[in-house]
Design a protein that fits this description.
By secondary structure, the protein is α/β, with parallel strands linked by helices. The chain has helices at about 10-20, 45-60, 70-75, 75-90, 100-105, 105-110, 120-125, 125-135, 150-155, 160-175, 195-200, 210-225, 225-230, 245-260; strands at about 1-5, 25-30, 65, 95, 115-120, 140-145, 185, 205-210, 240-245, 265. It contains 14 helices and ten strands. The structure holds D-glutamic acid (DGL).
C-alpha cells in the first residue's frame, strides 16, 4: 500500500489524483482529524504527530508514505527523512508535497510573481520561499496565511456563506501585494475543497495550480525512477481509510467529497 497522510480531510484532494494516475495501486489514507488543524501548532508538535502517523502507516505495511499535507511537509519531512528513517528502516521512503509543487512553477508563471496561501505554520516556515529562491532565483513570492480556511473544511462549512467572507478577505490581502501575480499556489491540501469559493475571488488571469495532480505526476515519475519501490506496491485497486476522529463522521464527509462510499476505521495514534 501507498500511505497517504494528512491532518484531516485535505489529503483526500491528493489521494483523488493519486488514484486517478495509479488506479491499480492500493492506498492507505490516514487523517489525524482529532488533532487537526496542524497549521496553528508548534514545530515540535507537528513533527511529533506526523512521526506517529508515519510509524503507524509503516506498521500497517506501507513502504512509501506521502505527506499529503503542506504543514507536515514544511515542518516534519526533513527531520523524519534525515533523523528518523535511518533508524526506523532505511529502505522506506517518506515524500512531501512542497518540492514537486515548486518544480511546476517554471512552466506555469510568466511574470515570476507567485502568490502563496497556506496555513500559518507553512507560511511562517518559509519553506516555499526557500525552495522557490533555490530553483527560480528571479522569482518573487508573495504570501498570506489563512488560519480560518482549514477549520471551515474540517467543520463541513466549505460551502457556507462564512467561507465566502474569509476567502474574499484573504485572497484580497494576497493579491493586493502585487498586480503581477499570475500563479497561485494553494499551499494547503484542504484548500481545493474551497475551490468554488476561491475561483469566485481570483481573477481569470491568475492560474491556480492543481497540487494533487502535480504530486501525482511526480509520484509516477518517482516510481519510474525507483523500480525497487515500485515493486513493493501492491496492486488491487483497494483503499482503506483510517481516522483518529469518529469513523462515521469521517465516512460521511469523505464520501461526499470523493463521490463514492467511504467506510473509515477509527484508530488511536
Ligand atoms: N492540509 C494541511 C496542509 O496541507 C494541514 C491543515 C491543517 O491541519 O492546518 O497544510
Amino acid at each position: 500500500m501507498i500511505g497517504v497522510f494528512d491532518s484531516g480531510y485535505g489529503g483526500l484532494t491528493i489521494l483523488r489524483e493519486l488514484r486517478h494516475k495509479l488506479p491499480e495501486a492500493d492506498f492507505l489514507y490516514l487523517g489525524d482529524n482529532a488533532r487537526a488543524p496542524y497549521g496553528t501548532r508548534s514545530f515540535d508538535l507537528v513533527y511529533k504527530f506526523t512521526l506517529q502517523a508515519v510509524r503507524r502507516l509503516f506498521d500497517e505495511g506501507c513502504h512509501l508514505v506521502i505527506l499529503a499535507c503542506n504543514t507536515a511537509s514544511a515542518k516534519a519531512l526533513r527531520s523524519i527523512q534525515q533523523r528518523d528513517l535511518p533508524h526506523i528502516d532505511p529502505s522506506r521512503r517518506v515524500l512531501g508535497v512542497i518540492r514537486p509543487t515548486v518544480e511546476a512553477l517554471g512552466a506555469a508563471s510568466s511574470t515570476g510573481h507567485i502568490g502563496l496561501v497556506g496555513t500559518p505554520g507553512t507560511i511562517a516556515s518559509q519553506s516555499y520561499n526557500l525552495e522557490i529562491e533555490k530553483l527560480y532565483p528571479g522569482f518573487r513570492t508573495f504570501t498570506h496565511a489563512c488560519p480560518m480556511w482549514v477549520p471551515l473544511v474540517e467543520y463541513g462549512e466549505a460551502a457556507g456563506d462564512g467561507a465566502d467572507y474569509f476567502v474574499r478577505k484573504d485572497i484580497g490581502a494576497l493579491l493586493s501585494q502585487s498586480a503581477d501575480i499570475d500563479t497561485l499556489i494553494l499551499g494547503c491540501t484542504h484548500y481545493p475543497l474551497l475551490l468554488p469559493k476561491i475561483e469566485k475571488y481570483v481573477p481569470a488571469g491568475v492560474k491556480i495550480l492543481n497540487q494533487g495532480r502535480i504530486v501525482a505526476d511526480s509520484l509516477v515519475d518517482y516510481l519510474r525512477r525507483h523500480p525497487e519501490m515500485d515493486a513493493k506496491i501492491t496492486r488491487g485497486s483497494a483503499v482503506r481509510y483510517l481516522t483518529t476522529e469518529r469513523a462515521d463522521k469521517f465516512s460521511t464527509l469523505a464520501s461526499l467529497f470523493l463521490g463514492q462510499p467511504v467506510d473509515a476505521e477509527q484508530i488511536v495514534l
